Amino acid sequence: MAGQDIEKLIKLVSKLPSLGSRSARRIVLHLLKKKENLFFPLIDAMNQVAENIKTCEVCGNFDTSSPCSICSSEIRNNATLCVVQDVADLWAMERVSLFKGKYHVLGGILSALDGITPDDLNIDNLIERIASENINEVILALPATVDGQITAHYLLSRLKDFDIKVSTLAQGIPMGAELDYMDEGTLQLALNSRKAL
């Protein structure tokens, strides 16, 4: 049986997504065996990120500066805005390295079951960006779930008065799938085959 401090660490690690208590126990044991090469550098990196991380005031991405490196980039296309559910989806899109525009993180999707309403999401800021920035296309890169589709339809109704093209990811994203779990080829196909709404 592990000591109290180790058990506390195992409990904390088990709260991470996709990890149960057995996986957390194996991870903690591995970290303890590799203290000098892995555990201490991991602690340092986590402390540094915790001290320096900011939420981008423009798009909602995590970075060490605000505006983030994507929003402040002069080589990205300012006219195309990709709307995603979460920062994990933004990172998934960036992993593909095909999208050269800017992003907007909603911070979730509408869900009657979970009580998430438009007021809970970063929608008003999205509308302000479209009204004030020179945006001519909005890509709705939302999950292919019922709640994702409801969110897309709601956003479409909010954007109908703007003279912009609104499209959504097309082929390749199966119903019920999350962007963060898609491989690069699937994301590339979905992005290239997006369709107007």
What are the main properties of this structure?
Helicase, Ruva Protein, domain 3, two-stranded antiparallel sheet, Dna Topoisomerase Vi A Subunit, Chain: A, domain 2, alpha/beta, 197 residues
Order of helices and strands: HHHEEEHEHEHEHE
Beta-strand residue fraction: 5-15%
Number of domains: 2
Strand order of the largest sheet: 4-3-5-6-7
Q: How many strands appear in the DSSP assignment?
A: 7
Give the N-terminus to C-terminus distance in angstroms: 58 Å
Could you tell me the CATH topology label of the largest domain.
Dna Topoisomerase Vi A Subunit, Chain: A, domain 2
Strand and helix map with partners:
Elements: H1 4-14, H2 21-33, H3 35-52, E1 54-55, E2 62-63, E3 80-84, H4 87-96, E4 102-105, H5 123-132, E5 137-141, H6 146-159, E6 165-168, H7 184-192, E7 195-196
Parallel strand pairs: 3-4, 3-5, 5-6
Antiparallel strand pairs: 1-2, 6-7
